[in-house]
Design goal:
By secondary structure, the chain is an alpha+beta fold. The chain has one domain: Protein Transport Mog1p, Chain A. It has a six-stranded antiparallel beta sheet with strand order 1-2-8-7-6-5, with helices on both faces. Strand 7 and strand 8 form a beta hairpin. The N and C termini lie close together (11 Å). It is found in: Nucleus. InterPro entries: Maf1, Maf1_sf. Keywords: Nucleus, Repressor, Transcription, Transcription regulation. This is Repressor of RNA polymerase III transcription MAF1.
Length: 237
Amino acid sequence: MKFIENADLDLVANTISENAIDCKFDVRIESYSCKMVNVDKKEWKKMKDFNNELQPLSPPELASSEGRFGTSPNHGRFRHLSQSSISGGDSDFDEPHLVNAISRKVLFDLITVLNHSYGDYDFSELPSESFTYFSDFNQVVKDVDSKFASSLSNNAFLKDLYWSAIDKEIQIKGCSIFSLIPSYEKDPFTENGCIWSFNYFFRNKTMKRILFFSCRAMRGDSGFESSSPDEFMNDQD
């Protein structure tokens, strides 16, 4: 997994952070290549006996129960094999698959992104049920808008800025979208001082790339220190 430097995404993330209202934002808009680097290959080899096993996902209503979305008729409804994904095809999980399961390689990629982005945490043992899949991009937009509505100054203008930057980098229509469900144990989205959060993985199979978009709204007195994937650059040779 290689972090792809992108000055435009960094600028957008910084702009969002600078416009926080009555809180501090920890914003990540990060692009990663799914090509394995040396450290990833070592970890992947440990899983070689299980590479072909499909891994179950949690249904979207579990994310909704954490207050991420309002009620929606799409909650709890998985896409049938005959239905198209956001990308318009049925191959967005790499292998023949169940509608509520992903390949172990996709799970490995999602966990690797988290470990790169939040270096103070170890997500290596996360089960696949910690993630969910969203077939409707509009749900994602609704969630992000609802979080930023009262916390982000100039959101009406800025939302065009960040969605345009994300689409330019990852081509949203060609993506499968996943999210980590906060565990209320040990993850950055439930630590003390976090008021609310969201996180989304936009995975474009054709581009072999994942874009990670997350935000934590932290209390002003929380004293959090944001981490950066830059510290992992030495591991990518």
